[in-house]
Structures are given as structure tokens and as C-alpha cells.
Amino acid sequence: QTIELLAAAKDLEPGIAAIDHGADAVYIGAAHHGARANAANSIEDIKTLCEYAHKFMARVYVTINTIVYDDEIEGIRQLLCQLSKVHVDAILVQDMAIVKMVNDADDSDTLAYYKGRMHASTQTDNRHAEKVAWLRDCGMARVVLARELSLDEISSIHRQVPDVELEAFVHGALCVSYSGLCYASQCCMGRSANRGECAQVCRMKFDLVDDNGDMIVSGRHLLSLKDMCQIDNLEKLLEAGVVSFKIEGRLKDITYVKNV
Q: By CB distance 3.0 to 4.6 Å, which of 111, 124, 201, 250 could disulfide with 39?
């Protein structure tokens, strides 16, 4: 059974460090349309990372996992063509418009490069076998599972859809909402998480007030979950069908990447 340790990289330097410290693959944002707008990278840096990674049989996945507006389609096409020329190993996507672009490409189209190289981002809210099977039928080679799934739920998905790779988070921050379905940042700050601009409202302090106006709790992190660490459950996750262990943290520094 294949086992992949997949590390997050904010930019080129932690990406190289991740490979030096044993990662089998790295995921990194492109110039735009990544779920972390503050972790964008140039084509040149991604090319350098790919060249370095491939020397050690490691892989580079690029996140293009936000909602795409109609007037941005051509820009996405150009970005995908540029990434194919630097030999990225896969792209992580949320918007089905990208999937359609790839699936509609004929063999002479540069976008045909991505057939068999698309991963469904956790932003597509992957919590049950029916969704995973649908994504497989759309051309996804891998599905990144929602963080909130139990071992039994992961195992059930694998049994029902055994012909798609499953990727699961094993370390890092947890979102209080379902992946891809949180609108708190958009509602409170005008910054959409589905456009890479999450303000992390759930990490802020809150007051809890009852309907009489009485203060129950003041200034507490009521929505901020503890970080995940699945180091004691890795074998169980493998047995459940996971093939890629994903480390969250595309906004973390190089020291964090090395240590994890």
C-alpha cells in the first residue's frame, strides 16, 4: 500500500525544507485562486520547487481551490497552461468549471495534461461515499476528505469507492464549520473563505450573552477548536483506506514545517 506524507508550503523555502525533512509531496499555492490568498507563488518558484522535488521522486501539488468567477475563466486557463509546462504533478480544485475545462480538452489541448491529475479539494465538502463517487466520475484521481470524519466513516467511503485515492488531514488547524461551507468570514468581514480570504473569525474572542442580555462568558475563544494531531492513529487511518497524510499549514513558517 502506498503511503504519502504531504506537507504544506507557504512558498519555495519551506517547500524545499519539507522535502529535505522527508515529505513525499508538497502542496503550494499558485499566483491566484488558492484558498490562502496570502500564500501565492510565482510560476518560476513553482518550477524551481518541481525541479528540486522530482530529483528525490517527490511530488508538487498546486492549489487552485477557490470559486472562479465567469470573467476569470481565461486567466485560469492561462495559469493551468503555465503550470503544466513546469510539470506540476496535480492540481487541487474546488470549482467544477476547472474540471469541465480539463474534461472538455482534446489531446491537442494543453489542458489535457491534467486528466488523471485533478484532486478534489477539501473545499468541495467531501463527507460521504456518494459525493466521493460523483467526484471520481467527474475525473478526480484523489479526494481530500473533510477533517471531521471518523475512522468508521473513512473506512465506509473506501469500501464503497475503492478506486479513488483518499487524502486525510493528520496535523494542524481545525475549522469549526464544514469545509467549504463556512460563510462567517464573508458575513462578518466581507472576506470570503471560498475566495481565499478567510479572516478566521472562529479564532477570535467572543462574549456569550443570553436572551435577557445577561453576560454568561466574556472574551473567550468559544469557536476556536484545538489543533489536530493524529500521530497515534496513522496505522488505523491506513487500514481505513487513506493513502496520503496531509499536514495543514500553508501560512506557517519554515520552522513549523521542519518540525512537523
A: 250
Task: Return the bridge partners of 64, or none.
Answer: 93
Compute the average pLDDT of residues 152-168: 98
* Length of the chain (residues): 260
Cα separations in angstroms, 38 against 5, 62, 150, 228: 24, 15, 31, 22
Residues 138-162, buried b or exposed e (16+ Cβ, 10 A)?
A: bbbbbbbbbbebeeebbbbbbeebe
Beta-strand runs (E) in the chain: 4-9, 25-29, 59-64, 90-93, 118-120, 142-144, 165-172, 206-209, 215-220, 228-229, 242-247
Residues contacting 196, CB < 8 A, separation 6+: 33, 34, 35, 36, 37, 66
Closest C-alpha among 58, 66, 67, 68 to residue 90: 58
Q: For residue 199, give the DSSP letter.
A: -
Q: What is the pTM of this model?
A: 0.91
- Pairing mode, strands 118-120 and 142-144: parallel
Residue 197: per-residue pLDDT: 79
177 pLDDT band, cuts 50/70/90, is confident
Listed in sequence order, the residues at least 6 apart from 141 whose beta carbon sits closer than 8 Å to its beta carbon are 90, 116, 117, 118, 119, 164, 165
The pLDDT confidence band at residue 34, using thresholds 50, 70 and 90, is low
- Burial of 23 per CB tally in 10 Å (0-12, 13-18, 19+): buried
Please, are residues 167 and 124 in contact by the beta-carbon 8 Å criterion?
Answer: no
The stretch 70-82 carries a mean pLDDT of 95
